[in-house]
């Protein structure tokens, strides 16, 4: 389901709007010592390769229905973000959301691509916010949001018994970090999240204060580590995986999350796949035993 990604592609920076092609699957075996190299994609000038783009691939697939007039990718992404915000706000009253209201207040002259926009909005609600968009009754043209505690199978371990909509956001950030080579500037994270309608300076209907949630709560909970980047003006920090993230999830689980969002295979990113595979093997390898006691 896609007209605009869940935002875009995790292999490119959030600012990049081009659709990076998945790396060709390699038939060679994963060799030792493969660093967290990030495959390059096509990015617009000035944007370095390797971060946020990937979730965005989804947006591009939803353009199956030809529109009578050309619309830019940015226009479609903004319309999906607007639709998601509308659904989240309307759901707070727990009253069914009518299709006529969506068309009147949000879709307007985008009626020709409404089914695609609704699909993309539903996908974003599912993966990012932990909600499932369902039609109240067949052909009722009324929708409600229900809590989907486990948006993907691979996310179950992170959620545990305390599933919350914030987990989807956390998985996206962990994915951005891993696909970018184990750290990512905070400014790039926000560039990416803005495409989801999540802003550092605006209160969010689901996440509350997103800035506090990411840079304080997730850091305090040890899911993330924040380090200041030297010689940056204004001051910028980079985010890395925290120790709790390594304990509660794994590189392979996060890579599968990214792949599922993009409807691709984890092996389509051979560098990250080899690293995740090595991580899985190290987790099951028994600890070396100590020296035998002397008699």
Automatic annotation (TrEMBL):
Cellular-component GO terms for this entry: nucleus
UniProt-listed Pfam families: MAGE
Location of region: Disordered: 1-55
UniProt cross-references to InterPro entries, sorted A to Z: MAGE, MAGE_WH1, MAGE_WH2, MHD_dom
PROSITE patterns, sorted: MAGE
MAGE domain mapped to chain residues: 76-276
GO annotation terms (biological process): negative regulation of transcription by RNA polymerase II
Stored Gene3D superfamilies: MAGE homology domain, winged helix WH1 motif (1.10.10.1200), MAGE homology domain, winged helix WH2 motif (1.10.10.1210)
Protein name: NSE3 homolog, SMC5-SMC6 complex component like
Organism: Peromyscus maniculatus bairdii
């Amino acid at each position: 389901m896609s007209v605009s990604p869940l935002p875009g592609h995790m292999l490119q920076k959030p600012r990049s709007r081009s659709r990076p092609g998945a790396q060709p699957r390699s038939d060679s075996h994963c060799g030792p010592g493969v660093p967290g190299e990030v495959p390059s994609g096509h990015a617009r000038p000035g944007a370095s390769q390797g971060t946020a783009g990937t979730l965005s691939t989804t947006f591009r697939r939803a353009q199956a229905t030809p529109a009578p007039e050309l619309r830019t990718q940015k226009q479609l992404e903004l319309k999906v973000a607007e639709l998601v915000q509308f659904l989240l706000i309307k759901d707070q009253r727990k009253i069914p959301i009518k299709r006529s209201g969506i068309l009147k207040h949000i879709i307007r002259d985008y009626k020709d691509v409404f089914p695609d926009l609704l699909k993309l909005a539903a996908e974003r609600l599912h993966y990012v916010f932990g909600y499932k968009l369902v039609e109240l009754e067949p052909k009722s043209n009324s929708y409600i949001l229900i809590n989907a505690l486990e948006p993907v199978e691979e996310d179950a371990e992170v959620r545990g018994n305390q599933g919350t909509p914030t987990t989807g956001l956390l998985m996206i950030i962990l994915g951005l970090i891993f696909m970018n080579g184990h750290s990512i500037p905070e400014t790039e994270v926000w560039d990416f999240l803005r495409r989801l309608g999540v802003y550092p300076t605006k209160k969010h209907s689901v996440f509350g204060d997103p800035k506090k949630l990411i840079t304080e709560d997730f850091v305090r909970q040890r899911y993330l580590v924040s380090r200041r980047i030297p010689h940056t003006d204004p001051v910028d920090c980079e985010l890395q995986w925290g120790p709790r993230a390594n304990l509660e999830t794994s590189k392979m689980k996060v890579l599968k999350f990214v792949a599922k969002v993009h409807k691709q295979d984890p092996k389509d990113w051979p560098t990250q796949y080899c690293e995740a595979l090595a991580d899985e093997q190290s987790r099951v390898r028994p600890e070396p035993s100590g020296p035998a006691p002397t008699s």
